[in-house]
Amino acid sequence: MEYALTPKQNDVILEYITEEPKITLLSGAKRAGKTYLAILMYLNHIAQYENQGLSFIIGGSTQASIRRNILNDMELFVGELKLDKTNAVTIFGNKVYCFDGANADAWKKVRGFTAAGALMNEGTALHDTFVKEVISRCSYEGARIVIDTNPENPSHSVKTDYIDHDGQRLSNGRLNIKAFNFKLIDNTFLDPEYIESIIASTPSGMFTERDIHGNWVAAEGAIYKDFDEKRHFIDSIDHSKIVKYFVGVDWGYEHNGVIVVMGKDAPGAYYLIEEHAERHMEIDYWVNVAKDVQRRYGNIIFWCDSARPEHIARFRKEDIKAKNGHKNVLHGIETVAKKIKTDQFKVVRKNAPLFDKEIFMYVWNSDKGEPVKEWDDCMDSVRYAVFSEEITGHRKSDKSTHDALQSLGL
């Protein structure tokens, strides 16, 4: 069976077949066709050992991501793949074991293993010791490793230990490491309108460099580069347009504790309606603030920083609907930044003086690739609120769609 490939994918797989690198890395922009190609390359490798009963490895951040990103697409080529009790599937008469490798002790799962090859998905999401252990376990003659990943900070070990050694050869002349970089436009199967839309909505700076151009760049400068006080600050809000209210909470004492009341309209734009920020206040004070918010906006959700579970427990004891906010920092920032870039984020300026102070002082730590822990109190509370609402809103939407299809017998 023949499968259509983009010109970029075709060039890469031809070099993979002819040069036979031991370690191949596919890095670059999202939706550029990296994972699909990695699957084809890996299946091609396993097929070389058909019916030999050898062991192979698939590594991913979680078992769920392995199913979603790898096994589901593999089934298009080899048919249904059912995991056995050892988390293995059978492909071309060989056992392929699936390991989740995001945690520091994940490497122990592959200790003592001998494999003829490995595919590692989302390489930067895997723990460095896991990546190295998997590579060391691919000791069978002719073993090959394929790693696909999106770019991150250029100091990440996937780049410094492997990509930066592109072209490295062994003493026998065999190519040891080959790295390929992908840009969004390399995926010629994508609708041009889709590409234009993605480029237009991707936040400036680091996100554009990584997600569109596939570059390994450090985060630097202001985090919300697209925030424009003339466009994003507003004088007041029309509450008749708001379809949902919710709250973000960042606990504090020596630094500001912050509660922000957010609104969302039907098209999906977010509004920072009011902010409550104080230092050196005990939990009783914040309970009173939350109850006042409840009195005015109803029994809405408070998305809280999970670092203070005792405060969340107190809120719940007071019948305040407190939940742990989703705290993936980079994804949360990207979610807020996209809303800013597409003018779907507004702030009632007179009601948010700390936000006004922090927004242009909220900057990246270029060495760590994360925000500087200063001028971030209101920024954190906004991130908990918006990111959590986006995640839970999409889950509910997906469930509603699923239920609707199921009711139709589909």
List keywords for this structure.
Phage_terminase_lsu; alpha/beta; single chain; elongated; 2 domains; seven-stranded mixed sheet; Nucleotidyltransferase, domain 5; PBSX family phage terminase large subunit; Rossmann fold; 410 residues
Characterise this structure.
The protein has about 400 residues and is α/β, with parallel strands linked by helices. It folds into two domains: about 5-185, Rossmann fold (3-Layer(aba) Sandwich), CATH 3.40.50.300; about 230-400, Nucleotidyltransferase, domain 5, CATH 3.30.420. Helix content is about 35%, strand content about 20%. It has helices at about 5-20, 35-45, 65-80, 130-135, 155-160, 190-200, 205-210, 230, 285-295, 310-315, 330-340, 355-360, 375-405, and strands spanning about 25-30, 55-60, 90, 95-100, 115-120, 145-150, 175-180, 235, 240-250, 255-265, 270-280, 300-305, 320-325, 345-350, 365, 370. It has a seven-stranded mixed sheet, sandwiched between helices. It has a seven-stranded mixed sheet with strand order 8-14-11-10-9-12-13. The protein has a two-stranded antiparallel sheet with strand order 15-16. Helix 2 crosses helix 3 (about 65-80). The longest helix is centred in the last third of the chain and has 31 residues, at about 375-405. The radius of gyration is 24 Å and the shape is elongated. Residues about 395-410 have low confidence and may be disordered. It holds the Pfam family Terminase_6N. This is PBSX family phage terminase large subunit. InterPro entries: P-loop_NTPase, Phage_terminase_lsu, Viral_DNA_packaging_terminase.
